[in-house]
Amino acid sequence: MAPILELRGITKRFPGVLANDHIHLTLEQGQIHALLGENGAGKTTLMNILYGLYQPDEGEIFINGQKVTIHSPADAIAQGIGMVHQHFMLIPVFTVTENVMLGEESTRFDGFLDREAAAARVRDISEQYGLAVDPYAYVKDLPVGVQQRVEIIKLLYRKADILILDEPTAVLTPQEVDELFVIMRSLVDQGKSIIFISHKLREVLEIADLITVIRRGRVVGSVRPEEADQYRLASMMVGRDVKLELERPTSEPGEPVLEVENLLVADELGQLAVDHVSFNVRGGEILGIAGVQGNGQTELIEAITGHRHILEGKVRLLGQDVTNAPPRVITELGTGYIPEDRQRDGLVLPFPVMDNLILRTYYKPPFARGRRMEWEAVRQHAEALVKQYDIRTPNVFTLCSALSGGNQQKVIVARELSRPIRLLVAAQPTRGLDVGSIEYIHQQILQKRSQGVAVLLASTELDEILQLSDRVAVMYRGQIVAIVPAAEASKDYIGLLMAGVPPEEARQRIGRKPVEIG
Amino acid sequence: MNPEETPQKPDLGKLILNELNHTSPQPPEKTKRGIPQSVLIPLLAVVTGLIFGAIFIILTSQEVYAGFGQSFGAGLAAMWDVVARSYAALFTGALGDPVRMINALQSGNALEIRRAFNPFLESLVTSTPYIFAGLAVALGFRAGVFNIGAEGQLFIGAITSTYIGYKLVGLPMIIHLPLALLAGALGGALWGFIPGWLKAKTGGHEVINTIMMNYIAFRLSEWLLTGPMKRPGSYNPVSPEIQPSAWLPRFFDDPIRFHLGFFLALGLAYVVYWFLFKTTWGFELRTVGSNPFGAKYAGMDVTRNTILAMTLSGALAGLAGANEVLGVNHFLAMAFSSGYGFDSIALALLGNNHPVGVVLASLLFGTLRNGATRMQLSADIPIDIISVLQAVILAFIAAPAIIRSLYRLRKPAEGEGLITIKGWGG
Amino acid sequence: MATTSSAFHRKIEIVSPTRQRVMGVLFILLGLALVFFFTPGLMQDQTTTFGLSLATSQVQLPPWQVHTLSTLYGLAVVSAILGGIQLARGFGRYTNWMLGLVVGLFIFGFLVWAAAGKSLNLVGMLNTTLSRSVPITLGALSGILCERSGVVNIAIEGMMLTGAMVSALVGSLTQNAWIGLLAAIIAGALLALVHAVLSIKYKTNQIVSGTVINIFATGVTSYISAKFLQVNQALNNPPTFGGTPIPLLSEIPILGPVLFSNSIFVYVMFILLVILNIALFQTRWGLRLRAVGEHPKAADTLGIDVFKTRYMAVVLGGMVAGFAGGYFTLGSAGRFDEVMTAGRGFIGLAAMIFGNWNPFGAFGAGLLFGFADALASRLAILGIAIPSQFLLMAPYIATMIVLAGVIGRARPPAADGVPYEKE
């Protein structure tokens, strides 16, 4: 029998990039086929081609042995292909039913919406596959995990047989991931086939029937999970041996640099986002904040750096009270801050590299004398930093928008670390970067630690937290549920805490004796 | 470790080049053709606009249809004739008739010389309010605010400077004129401050608010000119005549109206340039304009900068109004502005939101408008043809892809980033 | 995007009570204003008379006479009580209705005061209000069509103006008002197509594109007017649509003369209003249109053609604006004058925002603005000392207040004004 889906020699070029280079891929019916690769390896491009969002420059697609051409998502849907995008394609102000039926509406009298009929189908599907949702709820009111279920229902509503899930676990807790895997199994059992895109080795090994690794737009190889382990997959992904563990020299923590006491912070909607949080970070120490996205880490970081109003509590920096101090005061006391969203907050993309390198110090000598800008000093400063931090740019006048993601992040890192700082706040410092840049940035952070800088690191990548941190604080629903020394911070334990399991119970589950909470 | 300590050999040529590079909004694109597209596209847009205008004139000329009624050749001849006549009138109306200039110089008649050279100087007079208003909009764009309300600010500036101009009697010019100009700037500034404040504090989109402020300004001036500011004894809604001590001095005798305002505008263009590109104020303003989130992260006060930008923009537009009443009209009438506010959006974009570009664009638009006055008289082409031309030029500037495909230009590697203002969604 | 909103909802009350209080205070202030501004100088025994029929009506109702002072006090007390309730516990989701009610009471109070000791024909007033609201409401509907699909349209004014000019020219040439109207609709559609191409295909800033259309429309219409219409009056003399009373319905007292004795423009406005409301919220077409305006990429991934949808919406919007333009020449003046739309398109834009991008909301705003317009023209007759210009400013000021979020935030479609890029 012909495979349900076969891609042959798919090639896609973008200006200056060969995104997909003669890719072959075969999906059997009832299979979970994982597509593994680094960010930027070409996984998403390939899937966008399959879904009709891009046209391939070369290559052919076969479905059930029949050659097909897919010009648009509509074609893909007609061929039984459905995709859950990394960023959800849901309309917040529409109901679940409206979102699900959009594009394939139930109607009466040729054109008038029949919301009841569609809602009934949504209910049927959700019962059949165990995807509990309220058809009349507004999507904006639903938690992320449920929104993802709505996305899956959208595909099933269209009777898709081939489901593409693009990095579906990125926004989920480990427990929600387990639930998703149950759903995936149930889908496959009922005859669906799934392409599962991920860069997380563990998950791929756990769920996939077959793993295809892509590197720089090429298929490196396909392996069965029972034949592979994390190390082998990692070296396939990166193209060389990768040290999964970082060498972390020991360091003696010094005096507390940052002290946070009973912090209470609200989010944009006026809801409590940070709920009585207390901790401190000492010089020469990295405190990692673990947690699933949306549990208050963003707000906590913003509050500490002066970008969000603190309702209650105290923040002290080097013994000085900086609660609700202007960002500039906090910066001048010696804080470096790598923001979570580098393109939105960290850079001014339409500005040259050299302007971005003085974004936080532009008003001080030597860059300004009084109110007058000293552009020559700015240029010299920029040229030195470009050399020192290995920023790949034609020159310092190049606009930041023209740089790659890794180099954009290097601009931020150079700017923040080149100042004499005592505290470094790094939020998601390596999100979306290639392995080389990740390693580089990790090393820079560790170097600052050895220089006695206190580092507060927030990341949703648990691996990153565990590799770098001296202590790990876990945030769940706005609270720090535990602070765990590195030695006791196992992945399972932290994962359970991130999912909201109380520390006591979590320890029992992983079969360990309770220890003191730091 | 500290990069500032790294010694660098200064290279003078490189230094100057960098200086120039940096003070221009973007480093120049590397084009093999020599002329960067940021200059080429506006030029081609203007040329294409003139061609479009010619087609429009042909299509609306009875002579052409009459000609084609006779024969194809007569039709073509009529087409050529009408376009040539119109654009010749436009040219001589805008810059002067060379033959007449030479004759006048030879005759030595002072009045005749003034008359012969007047068209050119009159073009500068027409350009002056454009420079002020264009700078106003460009400054706004640089700071991320879309000031579509220059028209209203201009009106208010005209009202306040007129009031100071006729109400204060007996002041020496050295005090009265600056005072009247200041009043115009303050009036416009107030009209810009309100939508700026609303945007910064409540998020109300400045495009809607400035449009609303425009109409409030029109109604206000209507009321003032029929009520409190009406000229005593006049049946028309006009203000009293402004005291000569508040007039912007003219450089020549009648009929030449060329006045100090032009140099004031040029001076202001330099100030705006210096402010935007050479000071930390300007750096903050441009950062807020390009990325308000990044500006907030950098510790800049986005609220204050937004309000500041709208206020300064309003002040510049207000000066445009003051310049017209103090330099040209010497009183305020109801139908006083002729769409400078909307035209200034075209000017700012045509000039790439750079003061030098704005001055050049203003000179062009002023010249065209002045020439069109003559065209209306001698070629029977209504002056409104200018609005058509301006609209078409603006369309080409705003959608450079059209120009590129017309003239087969290559697409530059980097985005244009002329405007960073989004609609009122999201 | 709201897709990352977290699961826990421990609301800290820092936002909403403010609005409740502002509203309550506003109601009470309006009540107080009735007393402080309007009652001084009124005689004890003064009455206000409202005419309830037109001279042409078949059924003549006796005029309605109210005692001026006690009516004003009564209205003030009701406003104050509503304000008190609002402060004490709030009207929740009925707050906006209450606001409408209190503003209505205030306007009525204003009329009672304005016509104190005199007679004001209420029916005539309401009829004028309705007809003045026509171009505003139609302009707003045009805007809603465009913006619900994600394209900002500030060129309604230009499209109206062009529609007005074209309908005058074509109507005069053919001596047929219907053909003139059709030409206006086509002209609106063509200009809208330019706006659509610039903003959808070339991804021009939509406000700039709208400005292009506005400048162009002003130029072309004035040019044609100066070159042809003013020179040759035969080209500027179109037949007009007079009043078309609907049999029977127009005989209903009060309602008849107000609603059912109008020109076709009023009827079409009502029909469009209902159709657009149903089409947007109850049909497949509307669901897709709104999806494109909220999250075009999501719509695209479900096989909806974002570009086609937007083109269609903008061109339809242009047709509505062109039709509205026809009102000025064929439904009202009977000739074209330069810049005769006088900013009605922009007021339409304001009405759209005021009505929160909903057809009926926009109609309500259109009525309010039309009322200000109608009242302004009667101030002199009533002998009121307020300059009419200040009344005419009211719509603009009201819009700015709404936009500032004092009375609940207006929420535009999420992708409004953002060009869609297919990657």
TrEMBL record, chain A:
InterPro entries named in the record: AAA+_ATPase (IPR003593), ABC_carbohydrate_import_ATPase (IPR050107), ABC_transporter-like_ATP-bd (IPR003439), ABC_transporter-like_CS (IPR017871), P-loop_NTPase (IPR027417)
Entry keyword annotation includes Acyltransferase: no
GO function terms (MF aspect): ATP binding
Residue intervals of the ABC transporter domain: 5-241, 258-502
Pfam families, A to Z: ABC_tran
Keyword Calcium belongs to the record: no
Keywords recorded for this protein, A-Z: ATP-binding, Nucleotide-binding
Protein name: ABC transporter ATP-binding protein
UniProtKB/TrEMBL annotation, chain B:
Record keywords: Cell membrane, Membrane, Transmembrane, Transmembrane helix
Protein location: Cell membrane
Record membrane topology: Multi-pass membrane protein
Keyword flag Transmembrane helix: yes
Alphabetical list of Pfam families matching this protein: BPD_transp_2 (PF02653)
Keyword Transcription: no
UniProt-listed InterPro entries: ABC_transp_permease
Membrane-spanning ranges: 39-59, 171-194, 256-276, 344-365, 385-403
PANTHER family xref list: ABC TRANSPORTER, PERMEASE PROTEIN, GUANOSINE ABC TRANSPORTER PERMEASE PROTEIN NUPP
Protein name listed in UniProt: ABC transporter permease
Species name: Thermanaerothrix solaris
UniProtKB/TrEMBL annotation, chain C:
Membrane topology category: Multi-pass membrane protein
Chief location bin: membrane
Keywords: Cell membrane, Membrane, Transmembrane, Transmembrane helix
Compartment(s) of residence: Cell membrane
Recorded superkingdom: Bacteria
Keyword match Ribosomal protein: no
Pfam families: BPD_transp_2 (PF02653)
Official protein name in the record: ABC transporter permease
